[in-house]
Write a structure and sequence with these properties.
The complex is a heterodimer of chains A (about 325) and B (about 500).
Chain A: H1 2-17, E1 32-36, H2 43-58, E2 65-69, H3 76-83, E3 91-96, H4 97-105, E4 117-125, E5 127-132, H5 140-149, E6 155-158, H6 164-176, E7 181-184, H7 188-196, E8 202-205, H8 207-215, E9 219-225, E10 250-256, H9 262-277, H10 279-288, E11 291-295, H11 297-317
Parallel strand pairs in A: 1-2, 1-3, 6-7, 6-8
Antiparallel strand pairs in A: 3-10, 4-10, 4-11, 5-8, 5-9
Helix pairs in contact in A: 1-9
Chain B: H1 3-14, H2 17-35, H3 41-52, H4 57-82, H5 91-140, H6 144-159, H7 166-181, E1 183-184, E2 191-192, H8 206-224, H9 245-250, H10 252-267, H11 273-287, H12 299-323, H13 329-340, H14 349-352, H15 354-375, H16 378-384, H17 390-409, H18 412-430, H19 436-458, H20 465-468, H21 470-502
Antiparallel strand pairs in B: 1-2
């Protein structure tokens, strides 16, 4: 069964790669739904709405597009929703890292990303390792040294243990031999409040979130989690700071339901590519410090496969209990 | 810019005809959304956000915020009339609000809810205007140990002062706490108590549990007592449509309590308006000279939580506007709207975007007056709804409940759960178990478990973190006093009795 689906996917991807010229042009005739895995105001929700705003402004779609919030169980409710729409072509979803990690850890989460139809990879988001402005740590090396001195005494605030900030922590711990605590908070607001209130020592946050906190002198950025530096922040990348950590980007992309018709896949991939090239989209990325990393269906599929292996290995190394 | 200059500047922005119109549109939509269970302000704001992008940011945020605080006004309507809370913050309003309605005082209850909302909502904005930056610093001093202590205090106030049977109340509370653990554990990313159902990975939704246990159970009970003819009596005459002077006088302290408690708890990013309303109710009952009236239609038992959940709005905007920290779902969507306009709320917002900041603050004063004028005339209209005969009203309530449950994430599974919780609520009523502690446990359980586990992670397993921090120690001591007080009272009473018998 699994093989059949994968085979089917490969065929779809192969067809899609042949380009729109090879088949009848798909044009959506019903309103399009974009499923996101969290409530209004969450990172994914805002991302989906930003995509829609650009599509509306550039008049790229003949049909109305709406966000369908499917919160619950990390990404599982949203991926189950997409899986239930097999073969349809008027619903797509926004996936991120946890669409890969959730099924690795939860045995009930059976709708893996590989069962869905990859359409495009859209952006990667750099992260910033930050401390409070009055913290004694001026560099990441200072922080690591202090964490080595008192193992477990320093604290980092973050979300789920499957989120990128914890995986990065595990990698840093493995690389340096230091150790510190990771404390989960469900919302970004609480994580930031814990840092600003001095209840935790460090946090990895998004560039958009960090910019004004840095400008108003509340926090200091120690290092950037990114392959190249963001100009807006005066801090080295992890590699520049001397830490050999594999690049684990926070990704956001678009998937469709299982067995989505190939012409629809090609259409949506083309739509997203037009969005990615528009000046409004570039302004949005600039404002939030995101990186454009557009990939078509075939590339996205390959990327997901390699990235899944990489994340699985990291989780295992971090001692997280996996489902199988 | 001083506060007075800022506010004058803000009124200059908010009183422009266009912005006045947007303010009204927001308040009106908010009221509608608040009345309909299941459709929350966050989803509504998200839906309307694209329309506001072509507007000027001040007008846009004035309208979107109007939806936010307007929904709090409307939220009490279904709680009072149908025992159906649309949001976690209006659960407590059901307790005494619905009982008032059952006594034929539905009009009075709606009126008190509107007045309490207006007073506390306005006090919340005054506080936001005057003390935002210092109070934001206070909010940051709260961390997991303080949140845990706050919730213990809330539980102590509500549960242990309540009810005829302490044991039954405690059992209901524990079941509620357990229900809150169903789903994916934040700390280990593992599932708990999901019985192999992937649909339960996200946990139970508040709307499903509360509407089931309160509204569905109530209707099932009413169908059984069909002889009564009417779910609740229709208020007759003008006198029964308005709160009486005695009722308003009984609420004097509740207005103050609701305003202060609601604002202070609203400021805390990890608390939320449900906790604010529970604690305001608990305080009201603790200081009341007639605590036995609570749960049987005490107007002050409605005014306190209803006020608190409106003052909470002013409070919740403090960390959002001055620190850039959203406290909950609705403030998070307001934040993303501001960001999409290119405005980052935070310490620099007051200087860099005075139009938006002060325009919003000033518009909220205006919005609150609009909401009062909008809601008071609706009171007789809604009270008349009770005239609808049961064979029409009940299917409507069932329909509303099912739409509300389905609306949570668009799954029929949740409608099934609604039926299950309706039956649980019905059984509890039959066996004389109070349902409020179950809901309280469910609402607080998740946050409380998180707070204690975060605290212990911070202290590496050392419980003394709860007692070493002054704020959390004070609140825990308060909770202990509340728990021990009835025992001391009983001891004194029995001693007096013994003395009298001896003498």
């Amino acid at each position: 069964m699994k093989k059949q689906i994968v085979g089917g996917l490969a065929a779809i991807v192969a067809l899609a790669a042949m380009g729109p010229a090879a088949q009848a042009e798909f044009v959506p005739s019903r309103p399009l739904e974009i499923a996101v895995h969290a409530g209004p105001g969450s990172g994914n929700d805002v991302f989906a709405r930003a995509v829609i705003a650009v599509i509306d402004k550039e008049k790229l779609s003949p049909v109305r597009i709406q966000v369908a919030n499917k919160p619950g169980g990390g990404s599982t409710t949203a991926s189950a929703y997409l899986a239930s729409k097999a073969g349809e072509s008027n619903v797509i979803g926004v996936f991120t890292n946890i669409w890969i990690t959730d099924p690795l850890v939860q045995k009930e989460a059976t709708n893996t990303l590989s069962k869905l139809t990859p359409i495009a990879l859209v952006i990667t988001e750099p992260g910033l390792i930050a401390v409070r402005a009055d913290s004694p740590y001026k560099t990441l090396a200072d922080f690591i040294a202090a964490a080595k001195e008192k193992p477990g005494a320093l604290k980092q605030s973050g979300g789920s243990i499957l989120a990128r900030e914890n995986i990065l922590r595990q990698l840093l711990i493995k690389e340096t031999g230091a150790s510190w605590n990771f404390i989960s908070f469900p919302t970004g607001g609480e994580r930031l409040a814990a840092l600003l209130g001095g209840h935790v020592d460090m946090m990895i946050l998004e560039p958009g979130e960090a910019r004004d906190q840095v400008r108003s002198g509340k926090i200091r950025v120690l290092a950037q989690v990114s392959d190249t530096r963001l100009e807006a922040f005066d801090a080295p990348t992890l590699t520049e700071a001397g830490f050999k950590i594999p690049d684990l980007p926070q990704i956001r992309g678009i998937v469709g339901p299982p067995d989505m018709p190939a012409d629809a896949v090609a259409y949506y991939s083309g739509l997203i590519e037009k969005v990615a090239k528009s000046p409004e989209w570039k302004a949005y990325l600039e404002q939030n410090g995101f990186r454009s990393t557009f990939m078509g269906p075939a590339e996205t599929k390959a990327f997901i496969a390699t990235y899944t292996d990489q994340l699985r290995a990291t989780l295992v190394a971090a001692g997280v209990k996996l489902a199988d | 810019m001083t506060v007075v200059e800022g506010l004058l500047h803000g009124f200059g922005v908010a009183l422009q005809p266009g912005n006045l119109l947007w303010c009204f549109v927001g308040c009106f939509l908010g009221t509608v959304v608040g009345i309909l269970p299941g459709l929350g302000p966050a989803a509504t704001i998200a839906m309307l956000m694209p329309l506001t992008f072509s507007m000027d940011p001040a007008g846009g945020i004035i309208m979107l915020s109007g939806i936010y605080y307007g929904a709090k006004y409307g939220g009490s309507t279904t709680s009072i009339l149908l025992n159906m809370p649309g949001e976690s913050s209006s659960v407590v309003s059901c307790i005494d609000g619905y009982q008032m309605a059952r006594k034929g005082r539905a009009g009075a209850a709606l009126g008190i809810a509107a007045i309490a909302s207006f007073i506390a909502g306005t006090v919340g904005i005054v506080a936001l205007t005057l003390v935002a930056p210092p109070i934001a610093e206070f909010a940051l001093s709260f961390s997991s140990p303080e949140y845990f202590a706050l919730m213990v205090l809330g539980l102590a106030l509500v549960v242990l002062l309540s009810g005829t049977s302490l044991l039954k109340g405690l059992i209901a509370l524990l079941v509620g706490l357990w229900l809150a653990t169903i789903g994916t554990d934040l700390f280990s990313a593992q599932s708990r108590f999901i019985f192999g159902q992937p649909q339960l990975l996200g946990g139970l939704d508040f709307v499903v549990v509360a509407i089931g246990v309160f509204a569905i159970a109530e209707i099932l009970g009413a169908i059984e007592r069909r002889a009564e003819g009417q779910l609740i009596p229709v208020p007759r005459g003008l006198r029964n449509l308005l709160p009486s002077w005695e009722e308003l006088k009984a609420c004097r302290f509740a207005f103050v309590n609701g305003s202060v408690t609601g604002f202070l708890i609203g400021v805390l990013p990890g608390a939320g308006s449900a906790i604010a309303s529970f604690i305001a109710y608990g305080i009201e009952k603790a200081v009341s000279r007639r605590p036995e009236m609570f749960g049987h239609g005490a107007p002050e038992g409605l005014a306190a939580p209803e006020g608190a959940n409106n003052a909470d709005t002013g409070g919740a905007l403090v960390p959002l506007l001055t620190l850039g920290i959203p406290g909950g779902g609705t403030t998070a969507i307001l934040l993303s709207a501001l960001v999409l306009w290119g405005i980052r709320p935070g310490p620099l917002m007051m200087q860099e975007s005075p139009d938006v900041f002060w325009g919003l603050v000033a518009s909220m004063y205006i919005g609150n007056v609009m909401l009062l004028l909008l809601n008071l005339p609706l009171v007789p209209l809604f009270a008349q709804m009770l005239r609808i005969p049961m064979f029409i009203l009940f299917p409507i309530i069932f329909g509303l409940a099912m739409v509300g449950a389905y609306g949570v994430s668009g799954r029929l599974f949740d409608v099934g759960l609604l039926a299950v919780f309706g039956l649980i609520g019905y059984a509890m009523a039959k066996l004389d178990y109070p349902s409020a502690p179950l809901i309280l446990g469910f609402v607080l359980g998740d946050a409380m478990e998180r707070a204690i586990r975060q605290s212990l992670m911070m202290s590496q397993g050392d419980l003394s973190i709860l007692f070493e921090r002054p704020l959390s120690a004070t609140m825990l001591a308060g909770a202990a006093v509340i728990l021990l007080m009835p025992l001391v009272g009983r001891f004194n009473r029995s001693r007096l009795q013994a003395l009298q018998e001896g003498g």
